[in-house]
Amino acid sequence: MDNYLVSMAVFAGIYALMALGLNVVWGMAGMINLGLAGFFALGAYVSALLAVKAGFPMPAGLLCGAAFSAVTGVLLALITARLRTDYLAIVTLGFSETVRLVASNEIWLANGTDGISGVPGPYRGVLTPQQFNLLYLAIVGAVMVVVYVLLQRLCHAPFGRVLRAIRDDDQVTAVAGKHVMAFKIKAFATSAGILGLAGGLYGHYTSYVAPDIFSPLLTIYIVLALLAGGVGNNRGAVVGAFLVVFFLEATRFVIPYVPGLSPVRGAAIRPLLVSLGLIVVLRFRPSGLIPERLPRIPIPEAQGQV
Prior knowledge:
Strand content: under 5%
Low-confidence stretches: none
Order of helices and strands: HHHHHEHHHHEHHH
Number of strands: 2
Helix content: over 70%
Strand order of the largest sheet: 1-2
Mean pLDDT: 89
């Protein structure tokens, strides 16, 4: 049971990284990105291929996967940065599905639907499964803390304030002299890099990367995590990710007690129960559990009476 809880904590930490990456581009810059699974897959595949085919050490593979995802984010941003709301969401979702279909069909590149197995992990085979899970939890926790601290500093820096201004009104921001397109591209690159890093961590932990893992449902889980935690708040992103993982695993134990449900039907109902639980949270906390708090700008008092 302890090993199971540690494993779930590792997945929650990876989900938290993805939610933090989404918060940069959506919560701060106001761009709806539904291509999360695509960037996650790119990071996982690049890191796995470099480790298995070229013998790269895990840190180098993670950095290469994050860098490749970030560069891809820049290219996608150059195409989509002028799109708004629904159009941007549709294009980024199409990008994610394109990545998954390419990985499924190009056997020479990613071994098709069979995926890539034997992705090395730190001291895998030397440590016991319990020790390996604890070590990997420490690694994922350390990466998550570093990313969280950096994003917190970014949020309060001039760069973060410009992103929030773009989110509120990009035309006014442009009139104020800010290069809106450049800031959107940087936000996309930062977000994609974090998502790629999370994908690399996932691949090295599970030792297996396959296209089926990167379905649109993964993107929905991360979007729900940010909505439940609080859009625009890094703490909310982390809390929401752990909340989603808790709901996913809690329903696993609830389903067997529902009479008349076969295991197959129970597996199909689990996402529905997760959605209902999060809808309840959003019904009573529409801004999320930890809403974004913007600093109040003091209004100067009138100097004289007219």
